Each structure stands twice: as C-alpha cells, then as structure tokens.
C-alpha cells in the first residue's frame, strides 16, 4: 500500500507510476479482448442492417465504463478499483470506443457520392470531434479547481447520454445501397420460400463471421488487398498514437509523462497545464485539418495517399518533440508541428472506398477497429514494460521516459515507409482505374454469392426507389 498523496517523494512516485502501468494493462485486456470479437461481428452486421445499432452499442459501452469509474472515484460508493476491470469485460462486447468512429465513418461512406465528397465529410466529422476535445480541454483547465472528479464524470455522462439520444432520433437504421439492392434481388428470387427466414440467430452470427473472413481473404485486383491491410495498420498506428499522446485518462502515458516532477527535465505539470496544452493541441488539429482539406484536397487535388503521408510525418515529428521536451515551449511547438495529423483518418476512409466494394466498407473498417483493439493491448503491454523500465533505468536523468515516445515514432516511421510503397504502387496502377471502379461496384455481401449474382447498378441509382422496392418485396 502506497500513500499517493506524498507524490513528491521519488520512491513513492516511481511506485505509483509502475502500478498505474500495470492496471492500465489489466483494464485494457478486460475490454479489448472481447472487443476484438465484437468488432468483427458488428462490422458485418452494420453492412447488412445499417450503422445505427452499432453506434448506440458503442455509446452504451462508453456510458457503462465511465459509470464504473464514477462508482470507484466517488466518496459515497468508493467501489474497489478492480471493479472497473470487471465492468470492462461487458463494455468490450459492445465494441467500446473504436466502434463509434468506425460506424460513423462507415455511415458517411454509405451516404456520400464519390471519394472527394467522402473525404470532405469525414474531415468535417473529424474537425467536429476535435472541436469537442478543444472545448473539453479548455473547460477542464478552467474548472478543475472548482469541481470534484465525480462531478466532472457526471458532466461527461450527461454529454454521452445526449449523443445516445441524438443517434437514436436522427440516424436511420438503413443498410447501404448495395445491400438494399442485393436484398431486393434475393427477396424477389426467394419470395415463395420461407427457408431463409427460419435461420436462427447462431446461423446469422456464423454467416456474419464468414463474410468478414471472406472480405479479408479474397483476391483483389492488383495490390489492393495489400493496400487494404497496410492502410488499416497505418490508421491503427496513428489512432493509437493520438490516444497515447493526447488522451488524458486514468493511467494514460501523457498524464504520467507530464506530471512527473522528481527528475531532471521533468515538466511537473498539473491538470490545468495539461488542459490548456491539450486544448491548444486540438485547436491546431482543427486548423491543420481544415487547411489540408481546403488546400491540399480541394484546391491542389492531392491523392488520399498523399494526405495520409503528410499526416504520418506530422504525427511522427510531434511525438519525437514530446519525447525530448524538457520545457513547456517545446511541448507547444510539438502541437504546432503535429497540426496535420488529423488528415489521416478522413483520407483513409475515402481511400478505402476506392480499394474495396461499397458493401464491404463496414467490414473493412471493422478490421481497423480490431487493429485498434489489438494495438491498445500491445501498447498497454509495452507501456507496462518499456515505460516502467525507463522510469527505473533512467531515474533522475534527462533521458527519463523519452524512449517510449521514440518507440512510437519508430513504429510510425515504418508505417510511413509502407504507405509510401502504397503511394508508388497506386500511381503505377492508375491506368487500371476502370478495373478498380468495376470491382468497387461488385456486391460481395455474402461469400456464398456466385459471380452471376453481382449487381451492375450505377452509383447514381435512385436511393428512394431502391428502398421503396425493398419495402414492397418484404411486405
């Protein structure tokens, strides 16, 4: 047992940080392992039935998880900290945090006309997310001395509940165009038979998993299967980097890094300092994302792969500067350098629509969710060992903990090299664009579908007519 209030004592601070790293690993394993299976299933379910349920499940998991922390941190309940790990198992089966942005991006892909529009819409969505983070960071810096942590979580839960209500009311539970058209064909052909209607729940689950596996394994034109996996890995790396270097949750790396105060070069920040720095960082993300979309994409018409490369370089340089920072101004310079990191996610979503069929978007982005879950497990394990090792080995030295950030930068650099290969191959294969477009219109919603069952409809088909046709055939 350690008295955490005497945090200025070298031995106590080191013990607290090591235990924090261990519990970060336990909590990550509790919800991320179930989330890997949930993301696979829910990705295919979203392609079939729409994104609304998936978004609601993700928000529900977030609500339950934060409520568990509220019970632990409140003076009235004061439940043991291990209860957050138990609750994490339940929240993992909802897809947890990764399910929300994955499903939102898939929904944008369903309703957008063309990659350029999708890039812009995804960018706007990313900007709005970042704006919320700016307001949250600034608000945290202003009110942290005036409210308790339980009240802060109450406010957070209220906003999450508003997001749940908005999703419930405003987002329709409608599948994508290709799935609607496929249902019309299948329902028309099998309207006299009720065999398919009698399939049980377990049969549907097995079918959904088969569809996901088929999406990941089937051969594609050129190097497009490699493009899919490399792009997902890059998105996984940049997303994990953002979480590790921007998220200020319990046990997070950035918290432990900036709050250290007992060795040379330690920043010795408090919650107010971190809130202002994070707010400024998210503000720079907004500026960089808007500038990149307007100038790089709309005006200069850069490829999505070019935007991804710019974002990786920006994120890598920011991480390196944070790792070597020994003063406040270096931390703020890092945020300026990392202003284009927000371009990666919208560009990846748009690029995916050019690589896979429209009916596979949800399953492909579910692969990103699975990758994020796995990355968080690996990150937590690395953090538990690498960060603890740097705390012990470089105690009271200028090198304390920077190794962890340089490790992240090295992984990002590998992602940059892989994405550079994708960029070069894409340019060489640009002459095969007609083949890619033809493939993107094929319906691979079911691994059992034969080649003759693939639809040949245009992306300009009347959506309302398709939906009316689906309703008539199912009535």
Helix-and-strand structural type: mainly alpha
Q: What are the low-pLDDT stretches, counting only 5+ consecutive residues below 50? A: 184-198, 394-399, 433-475
Spell out the helices and strands N to C. Answer: HHHHHHHHHHHHHHHHHH
What's the number of structural domains? Answer: 1
- N- to C-terminal separation? 65 Å
Entry summary:
It is found in: Membrane. By secondary structure, this protein is mainly α. The chain has 18 helices and no strands.
Protein architecture, described:
The chain is mainly alpha-helical and 475 residues long. The protein has one domain (12-474): Growth Hormone, Chain: A (Up-down Bundle), CATH 1.20.1250. The protein has helices at 10-49, 52-73, 82-92, 96-111, 115-143, 149-170, 177-189, 201-217, 224-246, 253-259, 271-299, 304-324, 328-337, 344-355, 361-393, 402-428, 433-440, 463-474. Helix 1 runs parallel beside helix 3 (82-92), helix 1 (10-49) packs antiparallel against helix 15 (361-393) and helix 12 runs antiparallel to helix 13. The longest helix has 40 residues, at 10-49. It holds the Pfam family MFS_1. The chain crosses the membrane at residues 29-46, 53-70, 82-108, 120-143, 149-169, 226-243, 276-295, 307-326, 332-353, 365-383, 403-424. GO terms for molecular function: transmembrane transporter activity.
């Amino acid at each position: 047992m350690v008295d955490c209030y005497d945090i200025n004592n070298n031995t106590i601070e080191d013990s607290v940080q090591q235990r924090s790293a261990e519990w970060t690993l336990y909590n990550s394993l509790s919800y991320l392992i179930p989330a890997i299976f949930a993301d696979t299933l829910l990705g295919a379910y979203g392609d079939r039935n729409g994104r609304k349920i998936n978004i609601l499940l993700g928000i529900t998991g977030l609500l339950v998880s934060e409520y568990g922390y509220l019970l632990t941190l409140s003076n009235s309940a004061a439940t043991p900290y291990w209860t957050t790990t138990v609750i994490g198992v339940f929240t993992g089966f909802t897809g947890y945090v990764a399910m929300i942005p994955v499903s939102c991006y898939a929904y944008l892909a369903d309703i957008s006309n063309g990659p350029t529009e999708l890039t812009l819409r995804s960018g706007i969505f990313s900007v709005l997310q970042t704006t919320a983070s700016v307001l949250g960071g600034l608000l945290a810096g202003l009110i942290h001395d005036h409210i308790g942590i339980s009240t802060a979580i109450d406010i957070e839960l209220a906003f999450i509940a508003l997001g749940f209500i908005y999703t419930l009311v405003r987002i329709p539970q409608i599948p994508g165009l290709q799935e609607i058209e496929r249902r019309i064909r299948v329902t028309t052909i099998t309207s006299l038979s009720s065999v398919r209607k009698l399939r049980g729940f377990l049969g549907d689950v097995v079918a959904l998993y088969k569809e996901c596996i088929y999406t990941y394994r089937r051969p594609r034109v050129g190097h497009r299967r490699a493009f899919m996996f490399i792009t997902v890995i890059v998105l996984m790396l940049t997303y994990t980097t953002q979480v590790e270097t921007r998220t200020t949750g319990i046990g997070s790396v950035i918290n432990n890094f900036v709050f250290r105060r007992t060795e040379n070069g330690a920043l010795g920040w408090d919650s107010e300092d971190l809130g202002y720095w994070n707010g400024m960082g998210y503000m720079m993300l907004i500026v960089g994302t808007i500038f990149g979309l307007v100038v790089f994409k709309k005006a200069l018409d850069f490829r999505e792969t070019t935007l991804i490369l710019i974002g990786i370089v920006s994120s890598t340089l920011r991480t390196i500067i944070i790792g070597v920072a020994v003063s406040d101004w270096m931390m703020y310079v890092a945020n300026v350098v990392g202003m284009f990191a927000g371009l990666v996610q919208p560009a990846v979503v748009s690029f995916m629509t050019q690589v896979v069929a429209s009916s596979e978007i949800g399953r492909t982005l579910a692969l990103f969710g699975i990758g994020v879950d796995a990355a968080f497990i690996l990150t937590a394990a690395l953090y538990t060992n690498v960060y603890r090792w740097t705390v012990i080995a470089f105690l009271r030295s200028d090198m304390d903990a920077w190794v962890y950030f340089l490790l992240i930068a090295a992984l990002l650099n590998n992602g940059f090299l892989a994405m550079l290969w994708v960029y070069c191959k894409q340019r060489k294969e640009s002459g095969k664009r007609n083949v890619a477009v033809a493939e993107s219109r094929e319906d691979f919603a079911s691994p059992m579908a034969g080649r003759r069952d693939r639809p040949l409809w245009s992306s300009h088909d009347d959506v309302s007519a398709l939906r009316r046709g689906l309703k008539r055939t199912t009535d």
